């Protein structure tokens, strides 16, 4: 192992040497994990539980790491990593709260099992060391086709009045079809697009072809989702990324183009596309055939329909989807009192006690992560989760801190309105942030690696894992 400015982790060469077969299998399973993270809407029933394909792929991946002698030791060692241990503590606290207060253990076990799969996926990708970059390389290549396909389905569904509506949901509050593609809902589709776009900008921000393609397609995908939060998060995340780089530039001079061209291109694209939506024809008012509603569940139900295409420009803090979330929060607050304020009510138990506001007979669900954690696990659980965030930050390599800050700010803002905490894409991206630094990252800015060692001593341990592999 080297020290000082020579400490680097070379980009992995996956298919060479005596371990080529094992590397091929591992690479294919990583591909499956990333691909499955885009298929959140697909599931099947097993023993009374709903199992998603994005849960099956990580289980297969982790199973391979355990049975394969060449990867077993690294995986078991990674289970003792502070990031993994902190989140396991969060799961354990949720389990304790569930045993004490949940009226139905079955509903709670489903989410606890999902969280366990998430942390095992995180540990599995971290155990790959430098090879964890495979997941990132695959994910960023989904950005352009994911955005373009979403916009295409948005146009088709609204132009045909729902006659062809695959990959969309009808938002009856605004009388418009919104894109979800293979994600569970439009908000999740948009969040996936925003997260991977931020990583794409961090990796390929100086590549004009990549950035022009992203600047054209990503805004179209955001429009297709009709998600105001996603538009805000996209711009905010890029602003945080550039601001962090500008502050750090005083210590490690870096050409401005290295971190401004990509964000500027995408922001301009978002602003142009957002402004152009007012000039588009009213594509959501066509007469829908009666049968079109049977395959599309409305995301928000209302007796009053608004003009189509009004959703992105409708900033209403008293009604609409914001008002709906506030109603859910008020109902949740009724149960967050006394001992439950500190210890919670049990994981995934809100729907066992409340119906969805405005939808009689439909089990309620909290879609805001801070409220959900406070309801499920109380102040103690929220504190453990906050500690998890701090531990993650401490173990992110120095060169990757700007994009980590951007993703953290984006996730917090998005999760406040729509939580996707359990979905595998979050844990794949988290593993990408925690992977050892590559040669290109280490050589960006004189003295960057030395600063990483000084400010982030745990980088030494993470690099050792990469070098062993």
Question: Would you give an account of this structure?
Answer:
- This protein is mainly alpha-helical.
- The protein contains 20 helices and six strands.
- It has helices at 20-36, 53-67, 69-78, 82-101, 105-126, 133-140, 143-159, 186-204, 208-225, 228-248, 257-276, 320-333, 339-343, 350-353, 369-395, 401-417, 424-434, 439-442, 448-455, 458-468, and strands at residues 43-46, 49-52, 168-171, 176-179, 355-356, 359-363.
- The model is unreliable at 1-11, 14-18, 290-309 and 444-469 (pLDDT under 50).
Number of helices: 20
Overall morphology = globular
SS-derived structural category: mainly alpha
CA distance, first residue to last residue: 13 Å
By oligomeric state, this entry counts as single chain
Strand tally, please?
6
> What topology, given as strand order, has the largest sheet?
1-2
Poorly predicted regions: 1-11, 14-18, 290-309, 444-469
> Taking Cα atoms only, what radius of gyration do you get, to the nearest Å?
23 Å
What fraction, in percent, of the residue positions are helical?
A: 55-70%
Mean pLDDT across the residues is 83
Strand content: under 5%
Q: What composes the largest sheet?
A: 2 strands, antiparallel
Series of secondary-structure elements, N-terminal to C-terminal: HEEHHHHHHEEHHHHHHHEEHHHHHH
